[in-house]
Structures are given as structure tokens and as C-alpha cells.
Write a structure and sequence with these properties.
8 strands, 38% helix, binds glycinamide ribonucleotide, globular, phosphoribosylglycinamide formyltransferase activity, 6 helices, Rossmann fold, four-stranded mixed beta sheet, binds the ligand Nc1nc2c(c(=O)[nH]1)N[C@@H](CN(C=O)c1ccc(C(=O)N[C@@H](CCC(=O)O)C(=O)O)cc1)CN2, two-stranded parallel ribbon
């Protein structure tokens, strides 16, 4: 699932094309975006499910769930998907939704993790891959990598450096998940 420029999606497509043990069955977006164009360029089915096209958020949640479950995914990856998934989606796919966040959670959750880390003045940030739950970036953490912040960093330069790490880490975690699964013990999640 995506909302933006699709570089994380491209990394997953590349890994799959290189023989990784997973296939991208569809891409769902909440807005017209480059990620949807990338999916179409690779003949991957895409669905557009915009909040504004539904009477309320609950209706969008139900519609998105129906559109995604039609593809019967074993895992759902939110790769720059900028909407909070609702209770219907979570009940349908809970435990099988993986998100990549551009900060070292629990620090700087939400839609602006890169800007928030930069504004706070931390010297190190990074990326987190985690399971998605009903909270905002509160699900069990699967993997993290640090990224140093440079004195002259802007949000864009820092975010691009984080993305370069994310693109590899997310693909590595997805590969491990589809082959080994995950063991969850409370807040702890481990890939055996
Ligand atoms: N139930 C959950 N859904 C999602 C999670 C999650 O942890 N739990 N992670 C997000 C991805 N994400 C951070 O990694 C994130 C994306 C967007 C937002 C947010 O506040 N979105 C607003 C709208 C913002 C916009 O449209 O530009 C909203 O949903 O109203 C917070 C965190 C994926 N889904
Ligand atoms: N909180 C969610 C969030 O900020 N997600 C971030 O959006 C970017 C998508 O990049 P892309 O569109 O180039 O794949 C990624 O950095 C991802 O961590």
C-alpha cells in the first residue's frame, strides 16, 4: 500500500524480480501517486481508494478492506501509505500488516517523523519496520537501523538517506517474514 513516490515499492518489485520468495499481487493507494504509476508500469493490479469518495472514514475502512481482500494477500505492506488503517481492515489483516517508518520508534511516530526528528535536534534517527496495530506506529518492532543526522541536513536530504536504508531493510524483512514467519510475545516480535 502506498501514497507517494513509490521508492519503497520499487525496491520490493526489484527484489521480487530478482527471485525473492514473494510476489506483489496488487498495490492499493489512497490517492493518485507515483507509486500507482510504478505498479501499472510493472503490470501489477492497482486499486485507488480515496477517503473523500466515501461518506465517512468507517465506510472508507470497509471499502478498502474489501478491495484489498479481493487479492487474498498473505501479507500487507504499508510502504509510504499515509492513512491510518481502521478497525475493519485491522480485524481482517491484523498480525499480517507490516509498516516502514522513517524514524527510530517509539520516537517520532506519525506522518512527519523525519521533520520531527530534525526539529528536535537529535543526532541519530533511522528507520523502523514494525507490525501495524490499532495505534499509530505502536505495533511490535521487527527491525531497526540507525541513520546519522548531518549538521547541514534538510528534511529532504535526511529523508532520502533514510529511504536508502529503508529500501533494503524493508525488502530484507519481508523476505524473512514470508519464509520464516514471526513469533509475537506481547510487545516483542521476532523472526525465528
Ligand atoms: N492503524 C495503523 N495504520 C497505519 C499505521 C499504524 O501504525 N497503525 N502506520 C501508517 C504509516 N504511518 C507511519 O509510519 C502513518 C501515516 C499517516 C499518519 C497520519 O496521521 N495520517 C492522517 C492523514 C495524513 C495525510 O493524509 O497526509 C490520517 O490517516 O488521517 C500517521 C502515521 C500506515 N497506517
Ligand atoms: N509515517 C509514514 C511515513 O512517513 N512513511 C514513509 O514514507 C516514505 C515513502 O517513500 P516512497 O514513497 O519513496 O516509497 C518512506 O520513507 C516511509 O518510511
Amino acid at each position: 500500500m502506498a501514497s507517494g513516490t513509490g521508492s519503497l515499492l520499487s525496491s520490493l518489485i526489484g527484489r521480487a524480480d530478482d527471485g525473492a520468495p514473494f510476489r506483489i499481487v496488487a498495490v492499493a493507494v489512497d490517492r493518485p501517486c507515483r507509486a500507482a504509476d510504478i505498479a501499472r508500469d510493472h503490470d501489477i493490479p492497482t486499486v485507488l481508494c480515496r477517503v473523500v469518495d466515501h461518506p465517512d472514514r468507517a465506510a472508507w475502512d470497509a471499502a478498502l478492506t474489501g478491495q484489498v481482500e479481493a487479492f487474498e494477500p498473505q501479507w500487507v505492506i504499508t510502504a509510504g501509505f499515509m492513512k491510518i488503517l481502521g478497525p475493519v481492515f485491522l480485524s481482517r489483516f491484523g498480525g499480517r500488516i507490516v509498516n516502514s517508518h522513517p524514524a527510530l520508534l517509539p520516537s517520532f511516530p506519525g506522518a512527519h517523523g523525519v521533520a520531527d526528528a530534525l526539529a528536535h535536534g537529535v543526532k541519530v534517527t533511522g528507520t523502523t519496520v514494525h507490525l501495524v496495530d490499532e495505534g499509530v506506529d505502536t505495533g511490535p518492532i521487527l527491525a531497526q537501523e540507525p541513520v546519522a543526522i548531518h549538521r547541514d541536513d534538510t528534511e529532504d536530504t535526511l529523508h532520502e538517506r533514510i529511504k536508502s536504508v529503508e529500501r533494503q531493510l524493508l525488502a530484507d524483512v519481508v523476505t524473512a517474514l514470508v519464509t520464516k514467519g514471526v513469533v509475537i510475545d506481547g510487545r516483542k516480535a521476532d523472526i525465528p
